[in-house]
Amino acid sequence: MASQSVHTPAASHPEPAPHRDLWPGIAGLVAGGLLIAGHILLMRTPDTTGRGAIRHVVRFYSKDGNQALAETSAVLLLVAGLLFVFFLVALSRLAGNRSHLVLVGGTVFTVLLLVAAITGTAFAITVGTSDVLRVGPQTAFLAILLLNVGYLATIAAMFGAAVLLFAVWRVARESRAVPMWLGWFGFVVAVLSLGAPFSAWATPVLLGAWIMAASVVLILNARVAQRDEGPEPAVATGTP
User: DSSP state, 1?
Assistant: First the structure.
C-alpha cells in the first residue's frame, strides 16, 4: 500500500504568541507617539496660577488657532488611550505573575488620561462649537477650573503608570522576559511620576518614549520568534 501524507488541520493549532504580540507592539508604538504629541499640545495652555490668569486665559482662547490645537490634542490623546489598551494586554503577558499590577496600573492610567484629555480641552471645544458660551472674564473661571481638573487627572494618571512601571522593573530584575535597560528606564520614569505637580508636565512625555521603546522590544521579539519557528511540518502516516 502506498503511504499517504496527512496534514493536521490548521484549526487544531493555536496561534503562537509572537503573532499576538506583533500588532499590539505596533499599536503601542503609535500610542506612545500620539501621547507625546497630544501632551505637548495640551501643555500649551495658559498659566492659571498667577494674578493675571484671567487675562491670559481670555487672550489664549480668543484665538481660533489655539482652539483648534486644543481639539487636536483631545483627539490625539483619546486615540493614544485606545491604542494603549491593545499594547497593555501584550505587556501584561510578559509580566507573568505580576500581570495583575501591570493591568491595574495601565487601566488606571488609561482612564485618567481620557479624563485629562476631555476636561483639559472641554472649554476650548465648547467655545469653538457653541454660540452660547463665549470667551470672556465671566467664563474664564470655568476654563481655569477645567484646566486644573485636567492637570490633576494627569498627575493621578501618572501614579497609575508608576504602578505599571515598577511592576515591569521587578520583572526585568527577576527574569529575562523584559530587557534590563527597559526595566531601569521605566524605574526612572516611575520615580519621577511620584513627584506629582513638580514633574507632571514632563513625565507623560517620558512615558510615551518608554511605551515606544517597549513596543519596539515586542515587535523585535515577535519577528525573531516567527523566523525561528519556521513553517509547520506535515505529519506523515502510512500502512505497509
Answer: -
